[in-house]
Design brief:
It contains 21 helices and 35 strands. Strands 4-5-6-7 form a four-stranded antiparallel sheet, with no helix packed on it. It has a four-stranded antiparallel sheet with strand order 9-10-12-13. Strand 26 and strand 27 form a beta hairpin. Helix 3 packs across helix 18, helix 10 packs antiparallel against helix 20 and helix 13 runs antiparallel to helix 21. The chain is globular and about 100 Å long.
């Protein structure tokens, strides 16, 4: 067949290139170099720098333990007494000057020495001191067989003891960690995820980044250099006439040459993709079949640039000019893609609604930039209440709405300076209450140190989740600006002031005169955690793998300090790995629990036990959940909204007509589901159907992006976004959820646009090749 002969001839021309053989050798060496990589799994024992979520709190709690080391009934006191002398001296300086900055590494190393010491059980652990600390599920299981633990399990238990004694300090970590190996060598630092999570990490981030750079840049550039001589060589005197002497049309000849040139990319990518697929499968036990989709995707990407190279070769008959024109075209694609990403990152993405609240006829929303906005019905736009820098570190605590007797709504929130990186960075911040008259904020009571979220419980209490526990205040008191002069006591004794300061930091985190500790040492407030009030006036609190139901105790009969704690009326175990992010929705009788890589679980509010499961596929990642009119709704990372149905004791997910969902929440009266979608629009889903509620006018820059930048991105091939398509094929889903473990911070969803790169690149290839064929047929070469 003559067309096949032309393709083979082009293939042979590519094989003659020394650059091609250099690429082959590089690929083989890379695969051989990766072959010895392996992976082991072991218990998460030693504390790394990434494990310490709140270094300031670690400093204060250890200093408090050192100051009270004679109190052997306190676990933190026993740990502080066991620290090396030089660390104790440094902590002593902190006792004298709480503002003194000290490095976290000596403290971390000292704690690791306690963990890795051969002695078990250690001197610093006495059962009596740990009795007041509530056990996590994992710690309880290890303690039950304490006498038969191996060395790794003993070290794991010692770490759990330390985490229990120093709450609010450590970031969530799986109980298993992955250790990379290379031949017989073992890397000294573990990857702080389990082996299964490590596979997800590779598929979600490592492989897409590697493939995008290697296949989307290096191999495309090499491919253009290798294939650039094909068209100019075909147009050499005598060569074209010889080819056209065969029973072949000009159109078929050019397309065959084009296909033959693309075979270069096919050979290179096939070797690399198959080699990495086998290495990952046999050595890391990560069988990423999506990696094989890189072969056609990369071929598609190369065809975009090669179509330009073919046009330059026809017009100028020079391989050097072909390479130069193609590189110039690549620069144009990069600039347009980069500019579009800038608009997305600075204009559109920060405005995506991540959290909503509704009270009466008022609507409030927090966006991805952390900014708190209020809906202004008269101007039909979101008006800023608390401004933040989208790339800054300030934390706006998710707002709480409070209904007044006259039907108006007030908003309670606070802004913590640098709170995203350190919850205690802002010190004791004050609550900000926004009054409906003018929506001006009024500072009221001080929050406990390290507060990251606020939760209303009925109409009576406001609960603060902070770095070491939970504290509550009556909502009426939280709304009143206190008279600071009434708090001052000129005759107060100051000799124990510093000791009280550190004790308040460690024993509940509340250096606030208004919030009362309701769950300090009894409940460990480890992230990830969630709180919710129930219709029965109870508080549901979930942390890692435990869930509790609390209610206020009757303080009329006994006024001692113990009655500051609320009563725990029920507790249970949550499904899944405790370190993984989760969301939930609380209804009248049931709770819907959604955790990554797990079925959806329906739990009884009475017993806190699982009563139903809903199986979902691997691509499902729940980001928000809400309960409305006895029904549950779940939004996933892909932007879809599902309704949870129950029939005969069987639960199932039913998709709705909503698309591009950003977040969901129940209205104040519980009768409507408010759905934020398409960046910052909000609709309501009622029993009668869908109602359009909030359609804000787009800003000037949003209109520029929508009507100028976005159309341009469909005209100019989005080769950079095509790399995201490859990443989607590898991971098996078009969205990735980042963060969401830290209290007060919603997860960030990164979605890939699959339509735009396929349309822009596919359309460009078709148009360019049509022009190339027309030009080749209309010219006398």
């Amino acid at each position: 067949m003559p067309y096949l002969a032309v393709i083979i001839d082009s293939f042979r021309a590519a094989l003659a290139s020394k650059v091609l053989w250099f690429a082959f050798v590089t690929i083989w060496l890379l695969v051989i170099a990766l072959a010895p990589i392996g992976i082991d799994e072991g218990y998460t024992t030693e504390i790394t720098g990434f494990d310490i979520y709140n270094p300031t709190q670690l400093k204060y709690q250890l200093a408090d333990g050192l100051d009270s080391q004679q109190d052997t009934d306190r676990a933190i006191a026993r740990i502080a007494a066991a620290l090396p002398e030089e660390v104790q001296e440094t902590l002593g300086e902190v006792l004298e000057n709480p503002e003194k900055r000290i490095s976290v590494d000596p403290m971390r190393s000292a704690l690791n020495e306690l963990i890795t010491a051969e002695e078990f059980p250690p001197d610093w652990h006495e059962a009596e001191a740990w009795k007041s600390l509530r056990e996590t599920g994992e710690r309880l299981l290890l303690e039950e067989r304490q006498d038969s633990l191996n060395t790794d399990e003993q070290q794991r238990l010692k770490r759990l003891w330390i985490e229990s004694a120093i709450p609010g300090v450590f970031a969530p970590r799986n109980n298993q960690s992955a250790y990379l190996t290379y031949a017989w060598l073992k890397f000294p630092y573990p990857v702080p995820v389990s082996k299964a999570r490590f596979a997800n990490l590779i598929n979600d981030f490592v492989l897409p980044l590697l493939i995008s750079w290697m296949l989307g840049f290096i191999f495309v550039l090499l491919g253009i250099v290798v294939t650039a001589p094909i068209i100019p060589g075909m147009l050499q005197p005598g060569s074209l006439h010889l080819l056209l002497s065969k029973p072949i049309s000009r159109s078929g000849l050019l397309i065959s040459k084009f296909v033959g040139g693309c075979s270069f990319m096919l050979i290179c990518v096939s070797q690399l993709a198959l080699g990495m697929f086998l290495v990952l499968g046999f050595r890391l036990d990560v069988w990423s079949t999506g990696l094989l989709w890189c072969i056609p995707a990369s071929l598609f990407l190369f065809a975009v640039f090669y179509s330009v190279s073919v046009m330059a070769g026809l017009a100028f008959r020079s391989e050097v000019v072909s390479i130069g024109v193609t590189c110039l075209f690549g620069g144009i694609c990069f600039v347009v893609n980069f500019g579009g990403n800038i608009f997305d990152d600075l204009i559109t993405s920060p405005q995506r609604i991540t959290l909503m609240r509704a009270g009466g006829q008022e609507y409030f929303a927090q966006n991805a930039g952390g900014q708190l906005n209020r809906w202004d019905a008269s101007s039909k736009e979101w008006v800023t209440m608390i401004a933040t820098n989208p790339f800054g570190m300030d934390l706006v605590i998710p707002p709480v709405t409070v209904a007044d007797s006259d039907g108006s709504t007030r908003v309670i929130t606070a802004k913590v300076t640098n709170g995203r990186v350190n919850p205690m960075a802002g010190g004791n911040v004050q609550l900000q209450v926004f009054e409906p008259e003018g929506w001006e904020s009024v500072p009221t009571v001080k929050l406990p140190l390290g507060t990251s979220s606020l939760t209303p419980v009925g109409d009576e209490y406001l609960v603060a989740s902070h770095s070491t526990g939970l504290s509550a205040i009556e909502i009426e008191k939280a709304l009143i600006s206190p008279d600071e002069t009434a708090r001052k006591d000129p005759d107060a004794k100051k000799e124990n002031k510093m000791a009280g300061f550190f004790r308040s930091l460690a024993g509940g985190g509340a250096r606030s005169e208004d919030f009362k500790v309701i769950a300090g040492v009894e409940i460990q407030a480890y992230p990830p955690l969630r709180l919710a009030g129930t219709n029965q006036g109870n508080l549901l609190f979930a942390s890692r793998d435990r869930i509790y139901r609390l209610q206020p105790r009757d303080n009329d009969d006994d006024k001692d300090a113990d009655n500051d704690l609320w009563a725990i009326t029920a507790e249970g175990t949550l499904p899944g790995e405790g370190a993984d992010r989760f969301v939930w929705a609380v209804g009248d009788q049931y709770l819907l629990f959604v955790r990554r890589d797990q079925p959806l679980h329906v739990m009884s509010l009475e017993t806190l036990e699982v009563v139903g499961e809903i199986e979902v596929d691997d691509s499902f990642q729940g980001t928000h959940a809400a309960a409305v009119n006895g029904k549950f709704y779940v939004a996933d990372a892909e932007g879809d909204l599902y309704e949870v149905n129950e029939s005969g004791g069987q639960w199932s997910l039913v998709p709705t007509s909503f698309g591009t969902v950003e977040s969901i929440v129940a209205s104040a009266d519980g009768q409507e589901l408010l759905v934020a979608h398409h960046v910052d629009r909000v609709d309501a889903l009622t029993a009668e159907g869908r109602v359009n509620r909030l359609s804000p006018q787009r800003s000037f820059w949003r209109r520029i992006n929508d009507y100028a930048v976005t159309p341009l991105r469909y005209v100019i091939p989005q080769t950079g976004e095509l790399g995201e398509v490859v990443g989607t094929m590898i991971r098996g889903r078009s969205a990735v959820v980042v963060g969401g473990n830290v209290p007060g911070q919603e997860a960030v969803v990164e979605r890939s646009n699959l339509v735009r790169p396929l349309v822009s690149c596919g359309g460009f290839i078709f148009v360019m090749m049509a022009i190339n064929v027309w030009y080749f047929r209309s010219r006398d070469f």
